[in-house]
Each structure stands twice: as C-alpha cells, then as structure tokens.
Amino acid sequence: MSRRFLASSGLLAALLAVVLLAAGPVAGQAPCPEGENARVTERVTRVSADTLQYEVTFDDPATWTKPWTAMIPIKRSQDKVFEFACHEGNAGLHGILAGARAQEKAAEEAAKKSSRQTSATS
To answer: What are the DSSP E strand ranges found in the chain?
Structure first.
C-alpha cells in the first residue's frame, strides 16, 4: 500500500493505492484474473473537495492482452451511508431474513386482528 500527497489547485489531494498480487481465482466472480502474475490495483484519489475517484486496474497476462482500468467518480452526499457487504455463502443469512419476514407477518396479523376487534366493539 502506498500513499502520496499532491498539491492541486490549492487543495491537498490524497492517493491511496492497494495492490493485490497473485491473489488467485475467486470462483464465480468476474473479472477473475487467474495467472501467477495477476495484479489488481485499486486507487482512491481525492480529485476535488467533493469528489473521490475510484479506479481499479486488472493486469494478468495469462487472462488479458493488456491491463485495463475501470473508474468511478464518487460524489459527496449528505445521505446516510450504509455498509455494503458480500453475503456469498452466508448460510445464516437465509434464516435471518426468514425470521425477519416472520416477525413482520406476525405484526401485520396482530394489527389486523386488533383492527377487527376495535371495529366489532364500535
């Protein structure tokens, strides 16, 4: 991991780079560099006061003829930020969601029953 600071238009811009070397294949995920010399480089750069630039470069001579890069600008937001987590192979997730749906259904049925009882006594 490297970190470098650049002066840009009076703003302090930061670059964070993470390099994964020969991580090996990740089943079922694409792109999936598989070569012994595979390299995935992720960079997050602050390009302005309100914008981060996320770049990921895939370099694997065994998979592609040349490295390629994807870039996504990320704008500052006042909205709430929620964690994104991968749940592949999370066997417990099915039970967690099924339990939550059962609780929602029970609450809905209780509300309907209460509404019917209130209507019957009126």
So the answer is: 2-8, 11-21, 39-48, 51-59, 68-75
Encode burial over 110-121: b for 16+ CB neighbours within 10 A, e otherwise.
eeeeeeeeeeee
For residues 65 and 48, give the distance between their C-alpha atoms in angstroms, rounded to a whole number.
33
Listed by start position, the domains of the chain span 1-77, 83-122
pTM greater than the 0.85 cutoff: no
* Per-residue model confidence as pLDDT tens digits over 96-120: 788 889 999 999 999 988 888 777 7
Gyration radius of the chain over CA positions: 24
The pLDDT of residue 96: 79
